[in-house]
């Protein structure tokens, strides 16, 4: 028995800090899988669940499923990257979706990155070396 793969409707990439999420949107019942696991298992907690389902709830859509591959960064950065990727994938489908997601602020990339360590700062980015008093 051959299992037919669902047709990919849209693709998008979301980034946050050092996390990169690759999104494939297919027609389905609204399931989101992240790295082969259900999204509720990968991102536990009700706050995280409300964050990654926000683009679908805002547009009141349940006819699309998403397959997500995410790597790099930590849980918070990965979650934000997934949300941006989902919003970008939905925005590429219809112009009405794009305006609704834009007004909600879901299509804006958060460009804040970790500041690099500076030479001569004692291993940190903003710390100064202590000067001797005498």
UniProtKB/TrEMBL annotation:
GO BP terms in the entry: translation
Gene Ontology cellular component annotations, sorted alphabetically: cytoplasm; small ribosomal subunit
Region (Disordered): 108-134
Biased composition (Basic residues): 124-134
Keywords attached to this entry: Ribonucleoprotein, Ribosomal protein
Domain of life, source organism: Bacteria
Coiled coil: none
Pfam families, per the entry: Ribosomal_S9
Entry's Gene Ontology molecular function annotations: RNA binding; structural constituent of ribosome
Cited InterPro entries: Ribosomal_Su5_D2-typ_SF, Ribosomal_uS9, Ribosomal_uS9_bac/plastid, Ribosomal_uS9_CS, Ribsml_uS5_D2-typ_fold_subgr
Family in the record: Belongs to the universal ribosomal protein uS9 family.
PANTHER family for this protein: RIBOSOMAL PROTEIN S9, SMALL RIBOSOMAL SUBUNIT PROTEIN US9M
Protein's name in the database: 30S ribosomal protein S9
Source organism of the structure: Candidatus Amesbacteria bacterium RIFCSPHIGHO2_12_FULL_48_14
């Amino acid at each position: 028995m051959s299992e037919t793969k669902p047709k990919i409707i849209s693709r998008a990439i979301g980034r946050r800090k050092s996390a990169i999420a690759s999104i494939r949107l297919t027609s389905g019942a609204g399931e989101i899988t992240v790295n082969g696991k259900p999204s509720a298992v990968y991102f536990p907690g009700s706050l995280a669940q409300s964050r990654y389902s926000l683009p679908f709830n805002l547009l009141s859509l349940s006819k699309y499923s998403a397959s997500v591959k995410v790597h790099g960064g930590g849980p918070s950065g990965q979650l934000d990257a997934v949300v941006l990727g989902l919003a970008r994938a939905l925005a590429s489908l219809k112009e009405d979706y794009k305006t609704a997601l834009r007004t909600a602020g879901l299509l804006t990339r958060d460009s804040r990155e970790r500041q690099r360590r500076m030479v001569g700062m004692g291993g940190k980015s903003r710390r100064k070396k202590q000067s001797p008093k005498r």
